[in-house]
Amino acid sequence: LPLLIIALFELIAVSYCYGLNRFSEDCQLMTGRIPSLYLLICWKFIGPVAIIFIFFGCILQFGLDEGATYTIWVSDLGRTSTVTLPIWAQFTCFVITTFIVIMIPVLFLFNAMKMLICYDHTLPGYFPVQELRTRRNIGPYQPSSLHSGMFS
Prior knowledge:
This protein is mainly alpha-helical.
């Protein structure tokens, strides 16, 4: 469950905050090729919707099963049996999951505030765009009209 939430935050950060056009240009610089339209649609639309459906499905299953369960082997019966986790174990899982997930927006806000307060905007950042374009013989990134309209 925490990995689903982390993946959702990652998809939102790349697709909506950073922007798929900038991400496509970065991919072109790294690999020499622009990501396909299929991948861009998956990153922007299909991925987040699928993760949200899976997340709510897990929550619904957790609620219907009366908590988290696991399977044990009952040697006397010669078969497996499903047992509910104790309340203290479910609470521990909830606390650990909440701590992991809550750190994403907390650290985002902390770093955003740190950049607003401490970052010297007069210093230029350095990324060897021209060197990579020259070495790999890549022209400037030109998004198609479909890319520009759909993913900007």
